[in-house]
Each structure stands twice: as structure tokens, then as C-alpha cells.
Amino acid sequence: MGSRASTLLRDEEIEEIKKETGFSHSQITRLYSRFTSLDKGENGTLSREDFQRIPELAINPLGDRIINAFFIEGVHVLRMMVGVNISDEQLGSIADRTIQEADQDGDSAISFSEFVKVLEKVDVEQKMSIRFLH
């Protein structure tokens, strides 16, 4: 199992993760191995069903709540961000259009690389700053 993880992660990737997290080589390969064993769809993501197969969560009375915390529906998050200023229909339309524009491979999801490409077009520093008038 450990050898499978180490063959899937390149040394450069492990070194980058070590720098970002402070984890050791063995911790990273162990975590990656655990991740790949949970990823039954073998698509590089963990689904709700993948989490539900974790025995410790399956027997935990709060397991569903813990899992649901990882899968907050996007519209609910957007609603928290924008408040009640726009209707659910308008919010859904904005979310759909945003995903369509960013989703370059047509899989109805935004991958990290697609997300990065969208952010390259946005001046985040300008958008996230507060201008004070004198």
C-alpha cells in the first residue's frame, strides 16, 4: 500500500508538500495512501459516499453531521455571502453561469487548474481591498 502511494507522488510533489505543510516524507506518503484507498471512484476527490465508508464515521452518532460539513451546497454558501439581496433564482443563474465560464473541460465541476486560470484574470488584490475616501 505504501509503495503504491510513493509511485503515484513524484519526489518534487512530496518536497513541495513538505515545504507547505511541515509533514515528513513518510507522513505524506501515508496520507496519500489513505486518500487513494478512500477514493473509490479513482477520480482524485472524495465523495460523500467515500466518507461514509470510513468505519469510524459510520459508527459515530454525529458521523452524518461531520460528513455534511464537508459538503455544504454551493448555493447555501453563496446565500451566506450575498444575504437576501437577490432571489434564489438569480443566485442560481449567477452560479450556473460562473461554472459554465470556468469549466473548460465540460465536466460540470471546476478543477483546481480551472480555478487558477479564472483567478489569473481577476485582480484579487484590488477586489479584496477597501478604499477609504479622504
TrEMBL record:
Location of the EF-hand domain: 26-61, 90-125
Listed transmembrane segments: none
GO CC entries: cytoplasm; nucleus; plasma membrane
A single BP term in Gene Ontology: protein transport
Record-linked PROSITE patterns: EF_HAND_2
Highest rank taxon of the organism: Eukaryota
InterPro entries found in the cross-reference section: Calcineurin_B_homologous (IPR051875), EF-hand-dom_pair (IPR011992), EF_hand_dom (IPR002048)
Keywords: Calcium, Cell membrane, Cytoplasm, Lipoprotein, Membrane, Metal-binding, Myristate, Nucleus, Phosphoprotein, Protein transport, Repeat, Transport
Protein name as annotated: EF-hand domain-containing protein
